[in-house]
Q: What sequence folds into this?
C-alpha cells in the first residue's frame, strides 16, 4: 500500500470513509423501518434487502460524482506540499477514478444480475460511468482554479447560462433550420448505428480528460 502514490492513497481513504458513513446511515434507517414494521417483519425482510440493494447503487453513484466534484484542489494541495508534480497528481487522480469506477461497476453488476445483461449493456454502463465521473472531475479541476467566492458565482452562473444558450439554440433550430428528408435520414442512421454511442462516449471521455489535464497543470496554491 505504501508503494502507491500518496495522493491516491489519501483520496481512496477519504472516499471509503465517506462511502462507509453514507452506507451505515442508509442501512440504519432501513433497519429502523423494518423494526417498526412489527408483526410484518418477516414479510418485509425481502423488501428490506431489495430496497437496500437499490439504494446502494444510488449511494455509490451519488458519492462517486460528488467526490471528484469537490476533491481535486484538496488533492492538488496535498500533492504539491509533499513534493509531487502536477503530472503525478493528475495520474494519481486518474488511478483513483479507475478504482472507484471499477468498484461502482461491480456493485451495479451484482445488483442487476450480470448473468441477465448482454455485453452491449455492460460496456455501455461502464462507459457511462467513466463519462460521468470524468465530467465531475473536469468541473472540480476547473473549480480548483478559482477562489472560494468565484466558485459560488460560477456554480450558479454557468448552469444558468448553459440552459439559456441551449434554449436559444433549440429555438433557432426550430425556426430557421428546415432539413431535407435526406438529411434527417442521414442523422437517423448515425444515431441508430450501434457504435455511435461508443464513439460519442469515447470522444466525450477524451475531451473531459484533456480539460482536467489542462486545469490541473494550471492550478496554483491559494490562501483561501
A:
Amino acid at each position: 500500500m505504501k508503494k502507491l502514490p500518496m495522493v491516491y492513497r489519501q483520496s481512496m481513504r477519504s472516499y471509503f470513509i465517506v462511502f462507509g458513513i453514507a452506507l451505515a446511515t442508509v442501512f440504519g434507517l432501513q433497519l429502523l423501518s423494518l423494526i417498526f414494521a412489527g408483526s410484518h417483519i418477516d414479510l418485509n425482510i425481502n423488501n428490506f434487502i431489495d430496497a437496500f440493494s437499490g439504494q446502494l447503487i444510488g449511494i455509490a453513484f451519488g458519492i462517486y460524482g460528488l467526490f471528484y466534484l469537490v476533491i481535486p484542489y484538496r488533492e492538488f494541495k496535498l500533492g504539491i506540499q509533499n513534493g509531487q508534480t502536477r503530472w503525478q497528481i493528475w495520474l494519481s487522480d486518474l488511478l483513483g477514478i479507475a478504482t472507484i469506477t471499477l468498484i461502482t461497476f461491480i456493485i451495479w453488476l451484482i445488483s442487476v444480475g450480470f448473468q441477465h445483461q448482454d455485453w452491449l449493456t455492460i460496456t455501455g454502463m461502464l462507459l457511462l460511468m467513466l463519462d460521468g465521473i470524468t465530467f465531475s472531475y473536469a468541473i472540480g479541476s476547473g473549480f480548483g482554479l478559482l477562489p472560494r467566492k468565484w466558485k459560488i458565482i460560477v456554480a450558479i452562473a454557468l448552469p444558468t447560462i448553459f440552459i439559456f444558450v441551449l434554449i436559444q439554440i433549440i429555438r433557432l433550430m426550430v425556426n430557421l433550420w428546415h432539413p431535407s428528408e435526406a438529411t434527417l435520414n442521414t442523422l437517423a442512421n448515425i444515431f441508430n448505428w450501434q457504435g455511435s454511442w461508443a464513439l460519442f462516449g469515447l470522444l466525450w471521455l477524451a475531451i473531459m480528460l484533456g480539460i482536467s489535464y489542462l486545469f490541473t497543470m494550471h492550478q496554483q496554491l491559494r490562501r483561501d
